[in-house]
Amino acid sequence: MTFECQPARYPTSCSRVALLTSLLTGRAAEWAAALYNQKSPACNDYETFVKEMKKTFVHPSSEVSDETRLLQLRQGSQTAAQYTSRFRTTAARLRWDDAALKAVYLEGLSPRIREGMIGHEVPTSLDLAVDLALQLDRCILNRPSTMSAPIPLTALDRPIPVTSVDGRPIMPYPLTHRTQGLHMTIDQHRETLHFLVIQAPATPLILGHSWFCRHEPHISWST
């Protein structure tokens, strides 16, 4: 940043190397002095000097540690904004492409956010994934809390992928649970149903295509 703000003061690689070495202390200062004494070409090229310094003093496992930290990062009880901030801070130190970052970001989101992505197309970039996660998190945080007892859930024998009518995935994670039998009443109609569990901030219950085919209800779409 110093060089960008004062380009006229440090116009050459040599002047930039000189400034950097003047700021070094301890072993780093001794290392730089040895390079000057050896008349190393690195002293005349700033980028080469920095590269040599990193090779000498930056442990090669530092990036591995950042990779591990990013892979283990989870939203947990944080808001999506807090999780995103930590994710981007760690990701900035890595050289991963956007597709890899998006996949890891989605994996670290809380289950309520991931399930809330049902009904949305799978984000095609990290920025779109972040925008969707923040939007869903706001909906969940603003949703009135209820005091009703939790509904008992049963794990499915195998996960069910969620796709649109043309087969495209609309959620990166499959459904894994359903409710135990719930009694549903619509006017004079009563039945017991098992509902697949999703996190849908705006819709508490969805009756699927199979239910409509089975009952063929008469619906007035204008009211």
From TrEMBL:
Taxonomic superkingdom: Eukaryota
Residues of the Retrotransposon gag domain: 19-110
UniProt cross-references to InterPro entries, sorted A to Z: Retrotrans_gag_dom, RTL1-rel
Record protein name field: Retrotransposon gag domain-containing protein
Species assigned in the record: Nothobranchius furzeri
Gene: CU459095.1
